[in-house]
Amino acid sequence: MSMGKRLTAEFLGTFWLVLGGCGSAVLAANFGGDGNPLGIGFVGVALAFGLTVLTGAYAFGHISGAHFNPAVSIGLWAGGRFAGKDLVPYIVAQVLGGIFAGFILLQIAQGNPNFLIDGSQAGAFASNGYGALSPGGYAVAAAFLCEVVLTAVFLVVIMGATHGRAPAGFAPIAIGLALTLIHLISIPVTNTSVNPARSTAVAVFAGSGALGQLWLFWVAPILGAMIGGIAYKWIGNDK
Where is this motif: NPA 2 (predicted)? Predict the structure, then answer.
């Protein structure tokens, strides 16, 4: 497959992940206010992120590998599954796809005259954060550890599900369910990143607070992904 088609697939897949996942958080998580049965809440948002990866992987996996996440690309490179020369183009396509989704989501949200982004509030415009910007008030160390560990486990699941000896055709289901579980664990801690492109996509619209904390949601997921990729490279080696 040509690089142009692969990058387009990564752009579209990351666009879908951010629009579906962050869109559910912005538009539907608290629809109608607290206690309204129509609001999907944490569980709904977690499922939305998992479903975007599941459907995106089936749509684009045969084209680009369906990374949709700079940390995943770097983790697969660390695990010997992805060429280093393709890292920068993939990451650029992922970030641009995410930001475009954030822009589209903002246009939709602004269709409600009561919509307002309050950058001082945790989770503003589905942004990630720690300390005062953590949904549960978790400190920076807890947030960092959470993102490292969960991204590492995510890479282990990805590499295991796509191993040559794994059941064929089921990888997107395992990966989507893993991302759902990751969100169920960590939405209260960081609003769940494990994906620098997803974090960047909304931080650029959420204000200086989210942008000031964005460093953690690049460093921690990438570190975790490298740990997971290297660990699975050893675990999954038949020798």
Answer: 195-197
At 166 the pLDDT is: 81
CA 18 to each of CA 32, 148, 169: distance values in angstroms, whole numbers, following the listed order: 22, 20, 24
Question: Would you say the pTM of this structure is higher than 0.90?
Answer: yes
Q: pLDDT (tens digit, 9 = 90+) per residue, 134-165?
A: 999 999 999 999 999 999 999 999 999 999 88
Q: 170 pLDDT band (50/70/90 cuts)?
A: very high
Q: What domain range includes position 111?
A: 3-235
Kindly report the backbone phi and psi dihedral angles of residue 195, in degrees, each rounded to the nearest multiple of 5, phi listed first.
-160, 100
Residues constituting the chain = 239
Dist. CA 192–CA 194, nearest whole Å: 6
For residue 215, give the CATH number of its domain.
Answer: 1.20.1080.10
pLDDT tens digits, one per residue of 219-230: 999 999 999 999
CA pair distance 6, 12, nearest whole angstrom: 10
